[in-house]
Every structure is written in structure tokens, then in C-alpha cells.
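Why do we bother with holo predictions? Because pocket geometry can differ from the apo form. Keep that in mind while you read this record for 1-deoxymannojirimycin.
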Amino acid sequence: MRPYSTPVTVPPLSRRSLIGTAVAGAAGVALSPAAAQARQVRRLPPDATSAAEVRAEYLHGWHGYTSAAWGYDEVCPLSRRHHDFFAPGHSFGLSIVEALDTLYLMGEDAELKRCGDWIDRHLDPAQDAEVQVFEAVIRLVGGLLAGHAATGRASLLARARELTDRLLPAFTASPTGIPYTHVNLRTGEVRGTAVPLAEAGTSVMEFGLLSQLTGDDRYYDASMRAYRAVIARRSSLGLVGTTIHAETGRWIDGTSNAPNPPVDSFYEYLWGGGALLGDRQLTSWYHQLTDAVVRHQAMTLGGRLWFRAVDFRSGRPTGGTAQSELGSFYAGLLAKGGDLGRGASYHRTWTDVLQRYPVLPETVDAGSLRALDRGSQLRPEYANAAFDLWRLTGDAAYKQSAYQYFDGMRAHQRVSGGYTVAGDVTVRGMRLGDLTPAYWFSENLKYLWLMFSRTPRFDYRNAVLSTEGKVLSGLLGR
Ligand code: DMJ
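The structure, written out:
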């Protein structure tokens, strides 16, 4: 048993945050500058206090899942029902798989063992279910690989391999190598030829690691073939589009929309794959494509750095100023890729948005910061970027911004059954939804825990995390 291990308890609701009462003035409208200024986060507590708060909230959410939906993919914390993430009637215990390495990092060894035992007994990678390949890779394969690193259980690696073997037809049946979006795990039947770039290029970290661990290159080769097929079709400006046809390789949507979805992690895995696997080709592609994105898409609006969508052939703006919260991860990626100045600047942009809302809305207008999609899916990307920037610089300002993010989430999205999504973050009371997305167990609080706990179980200098926050290398102490 490790020193961090304690039984799972349901902590009482900690005191309400001082910033927690602010909401946007009118529906969908950002707070006025004065009101925004008034919405200052309280002083950052000592690290040990912050770490204890973060851990308590994680365990509150975890208890919500285990008490109402154990063995199912996701918990609905208000109704205390469950949700099948991949296919109706099929469960993969997704939240269990997502939680593995976070439980390890938090010293929850008894819970980690319970999860490993559940996976050994119940996780069936051969279900007659059609799954989205991208999600299965980053959540299940990545989760099992991180769980294998956290526990040393050979069975988790074997499960990751069996699952990947069943996902592989999506890549190998494609004439271009660009994976079909969906595959039936039992029959191998594939479907889905319109492939968003994130789905074409977010597998090399998991598949590359699996190849290294098993000595079987088929996984890494499949990922690289997909990347090559897309990058060979870049324009003379060095840009790529948004959606590509798996069978013909024709661009279906030629808008370069980086770093917004659905292209976001296409770029993230070029850098991450390079770092994890020591693959220079991936790192070189990262720099080539990122240089083009910065050259043709970076813009300053309202004194803030944003990235506009452009036609990938002409570089002409396609119009619109909607920006997705999911893009906020890009601050950390830019910094990791060597552009610390732009990374810090882009994080300031999103910090400005966070000052205007209790929690970040899904989509904002870059000019006015008005919420366009007023919901919140309990997203982790802002905390991910704060963590990356803090790791690179050691600057306490990133702890402050991460804590503010945490404080807002705790004040507004905590319910007795855990944490939940919100339908509208701009109205008082926030109109809550009823779901704890499984990634919440992998990402949001892991980044905060790592910033505040200084756990000896994590290699702060060298660890490499996936887009789903899985620690694919750099777990220590087992
Ligand atoms: C997570 O599943 C991953 O971070 C993915 O890359 C996109 N975003 C979701 C959570 O918002």
C-alpha cells in the first residue's frame, strides 16, 4: 500500500467559493468589464490545502459514479441512472477505465485494485457493438495502457491489445489508410467515410506505445499510414482541411479550423507522438503544420490572440468568429512545441473568457466574448493548458488560473451525486444537466492534483500525457 492510500469517503461540500456567485448579466452576454473585474478569485490557498480540496472533490465525483453506476460507462448524477457512451445496451465500464491512472496518482490503491478486478472479470472488447474508433482509442486503449503502467497488471495490456486488434480493421480496410470512423468490435464491419481530422490523426500515441510494448509494429504502422495520407494532401500553404474522405482521400471540408474541433488533437498527437516515441518525423510534421497555422490563422481581436478559420488552399478567412472551449488546450501545445510566447498569450485569452463566466461556456464569439453555445460539458481543456504551461515555466500564475477554474466548477457544477454538465452557464442557477462525462475522471482534476500535490508518483520533468490525460509514460513508484 502506498503512503497516499486512504479509503474512499464522501467529503462534505466545502465552503462556497467567493467567486462562485457571479453569473453573466443577461443570457449569453458576458459580464461588463467592471463586473468581470469584481470577479476576482480568492487568494490561492497553500498547495497542500488546494491538493486536499481537489482530491476530496475527485472522490466526491468518484463516489457518485461507484454508488449509482458502477460497471456502466457513465453516471447521471442527478437521476442516479447510467449512460452507455459507445452504444445503447453495451457497457465498457468506461469511467472505471478512465479513472485508473488518476486513482493511482491520488494514492487510491484499493479503488485501483477494485477497478482492475472489474476489468479482468467484466470488460468485453468483443461485444457486438459499433464504436467510434477515435473515442475507443483515446479513452479505452489509452486508459488500459495507463492502467497497465499504474498497476503492472499484464491483463490490462492484453485487454488493450485485444481491443486494438478489433479496432484495426477501421485502418486496414481503408484504401487510403485514413480510418473509417466506426467499427463493429465483433464483426469488424466498418462504416463512416467522412473523417474529421482529429479522428484521422489521434492514435499514434496509444498505438505507438502498444507497438513498443508488444513488439508488434502493425499498430504504429496503421497510425503513421493515416497521418501520411492526410499530410500528403496538405495545400501549398502547408495547411490541411477539416474533413477528408477515407476511401478517396478527397477533402470534404477544406476549412483549416485549427485549433478548434474537430481537428484539435490531430496536431496534439504530432507533438505528443514525437515526444513519447522519439519519432522525429512526427515532430517535424508538427512544426511544419503549426508554422502554417500560425502564419495564416493567428489574429488579434479585442487585444487577444485567436485563430480564425481559413480556406486551406487560399488562406482566405471563411468568416465567423466562433471559438470552441475545446481549442483552449492549444495554449499548452504551442508552448510545448517551443512557442511559449503565443502559448501564454492564448491562455490569457481564455483566462479573459473565464473571468466573465462562472465556468467556461462551450463556444464564444472571439470579438465580444459572448457565449454562443451556453452549455458546459465539464470540459478539461483550460486546466490542461494551465498544467502544461505551469510544468514548462513553474509560474504560479498558472496555478492561480487553474484554481479559479476549479473553484468555479465546484461552486456551480457540484451536486450531491457528483459533478454534472450544465445547459446554460449564463443564467443564475445555471440550469444543470445530468451527466458526469467519463473524461472528468481522467482529466479535469488530474491536472489540478498534479499541480498542487507534487506527488512522487509522477515524473514532472519527462512524463507524457495523451489528449485524454492518460499518463502514457512517467508514472513512478510502482
Ligand atoms: C476529451 O475526450 C479529450 O480531451 C479529447 O481530445 C477532446 N475533448 C474531450 C473532453 O472535452
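The CA atoms of residues 380 and 444 lie 5 Å apart.
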